[in-house]
Design a protein that fits this description.
- Helices cover 78% and strands 0% of the residues.
- By secondary structure, the chain is an all-alpha fold.
- It has a single domain, classed as MetI-like fold (Orthogonal Bundle), CATH 1.10.3720.10.
- The longest helix is centred in the last third of the chain and has 31 residues, at 157-187.
- It starts with a helix and ends in a 5-residue tail after the last helix.
- Keywords: Amino-acid transport, Cell membrane, Membrane, Transmembrane, Transmembrane helix, Transport.
- One of its GO terms (molecular function) is transmembrane transporter activity.
Length: 247
């Protein structure tokens, strides 16, 4: 724990101790029927939060890779396509994009779109631009000698990328990929505004019923904290697993 975190915790404890607020943690007491019901209701939001985040991450990686490749081309038009896409998408707030996908896309394309897939599509589009930059940076960081060696072996472009460049680049881009997944997990809380029953939506609904926002939103903070810490530890474990041993 660094000094800033410790200072923030101390300030929070002092402020809490200086108030006359009567905490109502009984609504989340696992030893009571009410507490068990409320806890079950809140934690059920993990399912939608994790699913929408995982699907968005996978699709964003696929689209990001497709968008990143033109940036590596010598064709000026392909590079221009990459820059236009990346800069345009990164300039749109995630919440605005989410609302446009949910309310605007069905009207524009004359389709039916539920809350879950609207969230996945919006997060995928928003994240794909960042993923494109992650892939571009990772691939460009590979020494040109690796490209030349692959070409000398007679590998075509796709064989070179698949067998030589991507495996090396993956080790380099794994940390930013982990950071982007954490970012998606946090941004997934925005899908609550379109009605998806994720962690945030369920917390909002319980606040309306119990009228104890401080306790419920504090528990919500702890839910996201535990979830993101678990993801961060998993990414660090994977980094160690694929790291090249240093002699």
């Amino acid at each position: 724990m660094n000094l800033r975190t410790l200072a923030a915790l101390l300030i929070a404890l002092l402020l809490t101790g200086c108030t006359d607020y009567q905490w109502g943690w009984y609504i989340l007491d696992p030893t009571t029927t009410q507490g068990q019901t409320n806890l079950k209701f809140l934690t059920a939001g993990f399912y939608d939060t994790i699913n929408v985040s995982l699907l968005s991450m996978v699709f964003a990686m696929l689209i990001g890779l497709i968008v990143a490749l033109p940036a590596l081309s010598s064709n000026i038009y392909l590079r221009a396509f990459n820059r236009v896409y990346v800069e345009s998408i990164r300039s749109i707030p995630v919440l605005v994009l989410l609302l446009w996908v949910y309310y605007g896309m069905p009207t524009l394309l004359d389709i039916s779109l539920n809350h879950f897939w609207a969230g996945v599509i919006a997060l995928t589009i928003a994240e794909s631009a960042f993923m494109a930059e992650v892939f571009r940076g990772g691939i460009q960081s590979i020494n040109k000698g690796q490209h030349e060696a692959a070409e000398a072996l007679g590998l075509n472009y796709w064989q070179k990328m698949q067998l030589v460049i991507f495996p090396q680049a993956f080790r380099l881009i794994l940390p930013p990929l982990g950071n982007q997944f954490v970012y998606i997990l946090k941004m997934s809380s925005l899908v609550s505004v379109i009605g998806l029953s994720d962690l945030t939506r369920r917390a909002n609904e319980l606040v309306v019923n119990e009228y104890l926002p401080l306790e419920i939103y504090t528990f919500l903070v702890l839910e996201y904290l535990v979830l993101i810490l678990c993801v961060s530890q998993a990414v660090r474990w994977l980094e160690r697993r694929i790291a090249i041993p240093q002699n």
